């Protein structure tokens, strides 16, 4: 699952040569331009801007050097991308070939199963696959709509947690039982015993759960038109998963089943016909989210250059000129505020992805990563450039001819490199340091421990380290890749900041993943994210080409600018070639590999029983809960039975000891007096023998026994 992350961190191999060339070639060319000194009355710039392409005079032949470097950088990136794509595809196939036997290798998920009035869904699936896949079909596992039952289970867990808390509290302070009021927020209403109150609520909830459970098992409508179909070979599963099953292309839709721990069961209950509507509505919602986030981000970016703001609002000059305020607002606040805005975003985007109806956790993370990348592209990158340029150059726009505005924009775009340097330091460098310290996880744990944790179960949940969070981390890494490629030719001084970030990121994640293994792995994707990563890097290349083309067109570089047209065309052709050459390895499983794996497995394990291996692999969680509940009841019964047996054995030994002692006394008395009647001796001898053999036989001559002892033996009979 994490191969693509290491490969992305391996972008050091891409940026080190680019940084070396840019610093040695482009910075001397830019510094010697000197055009910003001639425009110091028209635009606001800093010393860093003198190292950018903005410092090259319009119409200069120096732009041919920038053009040449753009081609060199593009070819180098494409060459490294080809090597990485080839290596990752090979590693994926090698991993699948050497992977241990897993249930998802033999299982296909079937969706939009048609309803047949004369058959149940299970019978329809069984009949269809016996007819169309007679040689390899093994069985199927129907999917039940148990979402309501799952809510009841969560509610019971919450109530049980409160009950455990108050029972522990009562054990610590037995002099007083905990009480509460049943009214609003516990401030009004009838006062009740907490322990009895939660026991009664749990008992009532268990009755509701039993009713809901029976409803699920007995109601045919609870069976969803989705099923996990298993085959007796990988080859048979591959044929089914990668072919069309019906002449109606909207029915009997098959795909590889996610591994059992990767299944997001709640979304399996969503009707298939509603998925398109859900995804359209979520696309509109994402667009609206991106749009409304532009408002606070635009304001934050206006603080990046306070000199430009002073020209628009002179009355703020006394406050802005204060050294502490100016340093904080201009150097630290923009990046920090932007990071706070982005902090809550991944959770919102994940909820949107769940609403879209994807049925695996890996798909949810991929969709969340895509949404997050688009958001960061529009708001962090484009939004920062547009908003920052508008505020910084507002004074110039109001005091120059309209024909000069495109030129002003072209000069001002690379000036945002200063902000992005700050952003990389605040978000990138500090973020990597925070990752290795796990400050966020530590703070969240202590907050939960302070306000939420009541029992040891709560503490275990609070200490869960969580997963690596690819939906949030991948877009951030891709944003830094975008910044590096866009500013490689425009402002090369940004590249060392990118290099430092990737170097620290590689060391930190290597430490976290390979050395101490700090994250929980929720699923294994076998590098399924890599095609998405490759596409994002290609998009970054295209954006860098368009940005450079627009910038040079304002620089009156009439001879060099048209030559840039070939760069995006070559990049698109390269992307299509890689897509056709390598992406099938990430979308389909070769039949050749499947057959080879099956043949090898049959040779090594000729008596393998796949039916038992796959029987409960995709069992719905509701049935696992049934089994666990049954095991708990069985465990309680076994404990009670063991306790009864131990009590029975103890009482039996005591009775045997008493009867033996009594027999010895009677025998001694018989030998000493010789006056004891024969029937008296016989009765006691027989009683001793009966207790010794563990059998209780009632007779009129028996003396009365303790009720529990007699009751126990009656049960034993």
TrEMBL record:
Region Disordered, annotated ranges: 643-708
Domain CSC1/OSCA1-like 7TM region: 278-552
Domain of life: Eukaryota
InterPro entries in the record: Csc1-like, CSC1/OSCA1-like_7TM, CSC1/OSCA1-like_cyt, CSC1/OSCA1-like_N
UniProt subcellular location: Membrane
Keywords, ordered alphabetically: Ion channel, Ion transport, Membrane, Transmembrane, Transmembrane helix, Transport
Main location per the UniProt record: membrane
Membrane-traversing stretches: 12-31, 63-82, 280-299, 332-351, 372-391, 479-509, 557-578
GO molecular function, one term: calcium-activated cation channel activity
Lipid bilayer topology: Multi-pass membrane protein
One cellular-component annotation, GO: membrane
Basic and acidic residues biased stretches: 643-685
UniProt cross-references to Pfam families, sorted A to Z: PHM7_cyt, RSN1_7TM, RSN1_TM
Sequence ranges assigned to domain CSC1/OSCA1-like N-terminal transmembrane in this UniProt record: 11-84
Chain ranges of the CSC1/OSCA1-like cytosolic domain: 105-267
UniProt record similarity statement: Belongs to the CSC1 (TC 1.A.17) family.
Protein's recorded name: CSC1-like protein
Source organism: Zea mays (Maize)
């Amino acid at each position: 699952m994490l191969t693509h992350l290491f490969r992305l961190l391996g972008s050091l191999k891409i940026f080190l040569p680019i940084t070396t060339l840019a610093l040695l070639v482009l910075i001397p060319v830019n510094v010697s331009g000197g055009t910003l000194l001639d425009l110091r009355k028209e635009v606001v710039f800093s010393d860093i801007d003198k190292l950018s392409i903005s410092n090259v005079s319009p119409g200069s032949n120096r732009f041919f050097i920038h053009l040449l470097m753009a081609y060199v950088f593009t070819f180098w990136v494409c060459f490294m991308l080809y090597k990485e794509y080839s290596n990752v595809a090979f590693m994926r196939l090698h991993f699948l070939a050497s992977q241990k036997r897993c249930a998802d290798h033999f299982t296909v998920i079937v969706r939009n199963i048609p309803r047949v009035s004369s058959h149940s869904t299970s019978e329809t699936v069984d009949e269809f696959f016996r007819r169309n896949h007679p040689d390899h079909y093994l069985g199927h596992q129907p999917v039940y709509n148990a979402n309501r039952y799952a809510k009841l289970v969560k509610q019971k867990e919450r109530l049980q947690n409160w009950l455990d808390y108050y029972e522990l509290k009562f054990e610590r302070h037995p002099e007083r039982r905990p009480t509460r009021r049943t009214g609003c927020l516990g401030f009004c209403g009838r006062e009740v015993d907490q322990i009895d109150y939660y026991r009664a609520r749990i008992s009532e909830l268990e009755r509701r759960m039993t009713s809901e459970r029976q409803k699920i098992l007995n109601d045919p409508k609870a069976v969803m038109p989705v099923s996990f179909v298993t085959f007796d070979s990988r080859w048979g599963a591959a044929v089914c998963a990668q072919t069309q099953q019906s002449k109606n292309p909207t029915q009997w839709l098959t795909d590889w089943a996610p591994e059992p721990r990767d299944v997001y069961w709640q979304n399996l209950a969503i009707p298939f016909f509603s998925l398109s509507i859900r995804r359209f509505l979520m696309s509109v919602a994402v667009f609206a989210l991106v749009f409304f986030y532009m408002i606070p981000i635009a304001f934050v970016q206006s603080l990046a250059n306070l000199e430009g703001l002073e020209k628009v609002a002179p009355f703020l000059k006394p406050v802005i000129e204060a050294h502490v305020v100016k340093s904080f607002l201009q150097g630290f606040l923009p990046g920090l505020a932007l990071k706070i805005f982005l902090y809550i975003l991944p959770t919102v985007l994940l909820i949107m992805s769940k609403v879209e109806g994807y049925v695996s956790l890996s798909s949810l993370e991929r969709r969340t990563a895509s949404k997050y990348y688009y958001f960061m592209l529009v708001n962090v990158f484009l939004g920062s450039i547009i908003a920052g340029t508008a505020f910084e150059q507002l004074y110039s726009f109001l005091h120059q001819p309209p024909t000069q505005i495109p030129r002003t924009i072209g000069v001002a775009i690379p000036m945002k490199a200063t902000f992005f340097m700050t952003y990389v330091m605040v978000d990138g460098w500090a973020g990597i340091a925070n990752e290795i310290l796990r400050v966020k996880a530590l703070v969240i744990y202590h907050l939960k421990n302070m306000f939420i944790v009541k029992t040891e179960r709560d503490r275990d949940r609070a200490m869960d380290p969580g997963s690596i969070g690819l939906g949030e981390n991948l877009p951030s890494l891709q944003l830094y890749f975008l910044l590096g490629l866009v500013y490689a030719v425009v402002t090369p001084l940004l590249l060392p900041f990118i290099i430092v970030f990737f170097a620290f990121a590689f060391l930190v994640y290597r430490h976290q993943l390979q050395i101490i293994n700090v994250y929980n792995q929720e699923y294994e994707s076998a590098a399924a994210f890599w095609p998405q990563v490759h596409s994002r890097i290609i998009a970054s290349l295209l954006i860098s080409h368009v940005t450079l083309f627009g910038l040079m067109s304002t620089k009156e570089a009439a001879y060099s600018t048209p030559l840039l047209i070939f760069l995006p065309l070559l990049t698109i052709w390269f992307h299509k070639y890689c897509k056709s050459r390598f992406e099938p390895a990430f979308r389909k499983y070769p039949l050749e590999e499947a057959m080879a794996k099956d043949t090898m497995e049959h040779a090594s394990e000729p008596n393998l029983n796949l039916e038992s291996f796959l029987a409960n692999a995709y069992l719905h969680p509701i049935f696992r809960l049934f089994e666990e509940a049954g095991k708990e009841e069985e465990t309680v019964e076994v404990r009670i039975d063991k306790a009864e047996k131990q009590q029975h054995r103890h009482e039996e030994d005591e009775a045997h000891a008493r009867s033996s002692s009594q027999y010895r006394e009677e025998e001694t008395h018989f030998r000493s007096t010789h006056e004891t009647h024969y029937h008296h001796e016989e009765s006691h001898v027989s009683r001793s023998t009966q207790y010794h053999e563990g059998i209780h036989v009632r007779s009129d001559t028996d003396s009365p026994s303790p009720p529990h002892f007699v009751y126990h033996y009656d049960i034993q009979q």
